[in-house]
Design goal:
It comes from Durusdinium trenchii. Keywords: Signal. The protein has helices at 3-20, 39-49, 90-99, 119-125, 130-144; strands at 26-28, 55-60, 71-76, 104-107, 113-116. With 147 residues, the chain is an alpha+beta fold. It is flat and about 45 Å long.
Amino acid sequence: MPLELRITTRLVLLLLLAFVRCVLVATEQPLSTLMQIFPYFKWLENIVGHFLPWLVTSFSMAPWGHANIKPTVVFGNCPWSYRLKKRITPAVRNRVAKSKKTVRKYLSKVGKPRVCGEPAVLRKSQVYPKGFGKAVRNFHMEWMAPW
């Protein structure tokens, strides 16, 4: 079995365990993986979909403090995930434009992965912004408050 399918199979098992334990789950960028067409995932979607809604939310992390405007897709069973979608204001666009640094990933002539630009900026772009983490925490705590 290819590595991608083994990883997806493990993710499906973890998602099933999370749903059984009533844990809220959000999977980032599921559309850029094989997950949507994977038979075990379709099975999980059918089983869990009878009990909990599958929510798909597309939003940008730029309003939360990220240096990129590109959309992020999240799906799972978090009932508050729609609240992550915020309007991209002109102030956010200006902040992103001023902080933008070009970082390119490419393969060298011998097939070795290379990075052109500032690696520190690349590492920073791979981290969730603090504002996003605080928002997720606050939305979750508001949702759990009545319990």
